[in-house]
Amino acid sequence: MAKKITKPVNKKPVKAAGPSKIKVAVNFLKSNQFKYTLGAFLLLFSGYLAVAFTSYGFSGAVDQSKLDLPILDFLDRSVQVQNFAGKGGAYLAEQFINLGFGFPSFFFILIFVVAALNLFGYKEIRFLKTFLFSVLWMLWTSIALALLLNVTSSDSFLYVGGMYGFIFSSVLTSFLGTIGATLILVFLLFVLLIVTFRQFLPWFTKVIAKKDKEPATAEQLAEEALAVAEQEALLQTEDPAISKRITEEDKVKVVVDPDFHDDDDFEIENTVSKKDVELSIEDMLFDQVPEVESPKPKTKVKEPELQVAEKVADELADDDVVAAMGDYDPTLDLSSYKYPTIDLLDDHASGNAEVSNEELISNKNKIVETLRHYKIEITKIRATIGPTITLYEIVPAPGIRIAKIKNLEDDIALSLSALGIRIIAPIPGRGTIGIEVPNQKPEIVSMRSIIGSKKFQESTYELPIALGKTISNETFMVDLAKMPHILVAGATGQGKSVGLNAIITSLLYKKHPSQLKFVLVDPKKVELNLYSSLEKHFLAKMPDEEDAIITDIQKVKNTLNSVNIEMDSRYDLLKKAHVRNIIEYNTKFIGRRLNPEKGHRYLPYIVVVVDEFADLIMTAGKEVELPIARIAQLARAVGIHMIIATQRPSINIITGVIKANFPTRIAFKVASMIDSRTILDTPGANQLIGKGDMLVSTGSTMTRVQCAFVDTPEVERICEFVAEQRGYPTAFLLPDYVGDTDGGSPDVDLKNRDEMFDDAARLIVSNQVGSTSMIQRKFSIGYNRAGRLMDQLEAAGIVGPSEGSKARQVLIQDEYSLEQLLNGFK
Ligand SMILES: Nc1ncnc2c1ncn2[C@@H]1O[C@H](COP(=O)(O)OP(=O)(O)OP(=O)(O)O)[C@@H](O)[C@H]1O
């Protein structure tokens, strides 16, 4: 038998040909050319339909007889129509209106316009939502109109509700009668209003509640008000910030069998048969005793109602203001500089990050239940819904110890089966205890919404930094000029880099290149490299450096020392100008009251950003820590600020010196409570949920903030936008710094002693401490001058040689010997 040879079939080329064609087609459909063409067509078509439909309302009766003609006759030139949109318009209007859905067909126009806008990239109005609601409303109005017209008159030239409206309404009336059909339509209207307009239900309940009260006499009202006032006074005065109260009215229907219950505490006076009983979720969840109308448990603890705080929607700035951001006139060197525009940022909001009532009630019940289990009663509970977490504030019954609640942190976390629960007991200044519970559907806070917020746009901060949104959805902003330095820490992957980008971008959105310079230190070489294109606008570097982003450890040391020199020279300038800080100095300089020929210059703010601070400390230790500490201690008044970020928050990296000088600290999620203590001096950062969830401590207050999200492409777009504009010829040049010059007594001419020489010598001897910074502090002079004084004191034999970071040895023991020595110089 001949063997059947099966040839291996090479399917590859066939496969490759198929998808590639599809791909081309998909790419074409996705291309902007296609989208804009289709969008333009839809928009024009909508306009045409609008004219045709409107005109049909007036001329439809006349045109209709012509529309009944066979199509060829209708197209004949001798046949004229009155519709402004011509025969085409008349035909379309007839199809859509008379033979379709009646005048509600105008909804089609809405659908086409929204589709066109979406194709043009305007996504504020969602197409799918519009489509769905428009179709539903169109059907409803079409049937309602048909029904109404059937009832009132039926001798019109057209079906106002269209053919379909007529058919549907006829079917409805034949089944249910006119009254039944009307009732169904009223019911559907109610449902449509609820699903379409979010505000409808609250408004409706308010109206109903008002109606209920109407028959009350003035006396009754007064009594009622008094009773409410008394009850409120017992707990807390009414808070206008409360948006809704979730109480027993939030009912669900369940079927319970009362016979099944054999709870001793629960006595049923009337015999109740198996039936539907309405009861609140609260009761189901933790009393497990159905509350039926007449039989009541003998002892029933009053349930605390859940108040949900008003969601403060952050006011967006007027479009004009946002647009005006691009036109802000800097008045200085680059007068044509345009600020980055808001459309460079993306909107990352998912739009479905609502916290449902069920989630709120279920969390509230679990909290109350857990606390009750430990015999902790509460009188009030209030929820504030944030972007990623909800804060439940509770007021415990009098006599409950706060520490007891704090100790239940793990139990509450367990009962809510959620990570990231944090208990704040008590919330400073509020007298309540806070329990923060992560939302099931967290919301991404886009940088776009933060930058576009009125608060940011109208901020008058010197160095405004918009970090994100607080638990109450407010934009959280700080002024770096007041901070004055920030320490950012968090385990890897928790949002530190995004946080740094948010800080830098907020400054880029508000500052002119002449007002701000960044010194960017990035040992990891990849994080801040994005900003290298800003060199001629916003970056500062040492004169002979090639790259403006500093990555090499030796260059980091030199640059930090150079920033120190810049700081000292700025102090000298301030002193010469008789001002105390950079704002006063620059105001004087802009007012032409300081002479540039005497060395005065406009001082831009300098923000030193150090990423991966831990790496620097590990490799360079004190050589880096000391200049950083010195900048941190002294640079605030001269407009030099630091932001240092680290992944490893251990105490050998975030030392006491660093901590003492960085009062503002931002902690993203860290691995352990010890790490949290190292950064914030308190636990808490270990309980965060990651992805930009952070705690911001400004020394006195601690705020939980959801960091604004800004993605790398957005940062790239902003940098590109800035870099494309005319910049300075070079980066801002920092003073030159030549490595260490240690060893040997400096060459000093004691004949040209500083005029403060005698005073400095007396200070050193009386304190018996040879410290340059002490001279600096006591006499309010710059580091350079204090250093020169120290060299002269060394040459005069008053202090010993430099001993690195330690104070010098004082060689003169008493003031008498010193005076003799000083007399010898005269
Ligand atoms: N504010 C935020 N909102 C939403 N998601 C965020 C936010 N911040 C960070 N993320 C998510 O977490 C990821 C990691 O963030 P990021 O790169 O900033 O971490 P990191 O702490 O800098 O990590 P590493 O230290 O390794 O560089 C991001 O890619 C993003 O998906």
Automatic annotation (TrEMBL):
<dbReference type="InterPro" id="IPR050206">
    <property type="entry name" value="FtsK/SpoIIIE/SftA"/>
</dbReference>
<dbReference type="GO" id="GO:0003677">
    <property type="term" value="F:DNA binding"/>
</dbReference>
<feature type="binding site">
    <location>
        <begin position="490"/>
        <end position="497"/>
    </location>
    <ligand>
        <name>ATP</name>
    </ligand>
</feature>
<dbReference type="InterPro" id="IPR036390">
    <property type="entry name" value="WH_DNA-bd_sf"/>
</dbReference>
<dbReference type="GO" id="GO:0005524">
    <property type="term" value="F:ATP binding"/>
</dbReference>
<protein>
    <submittedName>
        <fullName>Cell division protein FtsK</fullName>
    </submittedName>
</protein>
<keyword id="KW-0472">Membrane</keyword>
<keyword id="KW-0238">DNA-binding</keyword>
<comment type="similarity">
    <text>Belongs to the FtsK/SpoIIIE/SftA family.</text>
</comment>
<dbReference type="GO" id="GO:0005886">
    <property type="term" value="C:plasma membrane"/>
</dbReference>
<keyword id="KW-1133">Transmembrane helix</keyword>
<feature type="transmembrane region" description="Helical">
    <location>
        <begin position="96"/>
        <end position="119"/>
    </location>
</feature>
<dbReference type="InterPro" id="IPR025199">
    <property type="entry name" value="FtsK_4TM"/>
</dbReference>
<feature type="domain" description="FtsK">
    <location>
        <begin position="473"/>
        <end position="677"/>
    </location>
</feature>
<keyword id="KW-0067">ATP-binding</keyword>
<dbReference type="InterPro" id="IPR041027">
    <property type="entry name" value="FtsK_alpha"/>
</dbReference>
<feature type="transmembrane region" description="Helical">
    <location>
        <begin position="38"/>
        <end position="58"/>
    </location>
</feature>
<dbReference type="InterPro" id="IPR036388">
    <property type="entry name" value="WH-like_DNA-bd_sf"/>
</dbReference>
<keyword id="KW-1003">Cell membrane</keyword>
<dbReference type="Pfam" id="PF13491">
    <property type="entry name" value="FtsK_4TM"/>
</dbReference>
<keyword id="KW-0547">Nucleotide-binding</keyword>
<feature type="transmembrane region" description="Helical">
    <location>
        <begin position="131"/>
        <end position="151"/>
    </location>
</feature>
<dbReference type="GO" id="GO:0051301">
    <property type="term" value="P:cell division"/>
</dbReference>
<keyword id="KW-0812">Transmembrane</keyword>
<keyword id="KW-0131">Cell cycle</keyword>
<dbReference type="InterPro" id="IPR002543">
    <property type="entry name" value="FtsK_dom"/>
</dbReference>
<dbReference type="InterPro" id="IPR027417">
    <property type="entry name" value="P-loop_NTPase"/>
</dbReference>
<dbReference type="Pfam" id="PF09397">
    <property type="entry name" value="FtsK_gamma"/>
</dbReference>
<dbReference type="Pfam" id="PF17854">
    <property type="entry name" value="FtsK_alpha"/>
</dbReference>
<keyword id="KW-0159">Chromosome partition</keyword>
<dbReference type="InterPro" id="IPR018541">
    <property type="entry name" value="Ftsk_gamma"/>
</dbReference>
<feature type="transmembrane region" description="Helical">
    <location>
        <begin position="183"/>
        <end position="204"/>
    </location>
</feature>
<dbReference type="GO" id="GO:0007059">
    <property type="term" value="P:chromosome segregation"/>
</dbReference>
<dbReference type="Pfam" id="PF01580">
    <property type="entry name" value="FtsK_SpoIIIE"/>
</dbReference>
<keyword id="KW-0132">Cell division</keyword>
<feature type="transmembrane region" description="Helical">
    <location>
        <begin position="157"/>
        <end position="176"/>
    </location>
</feature>
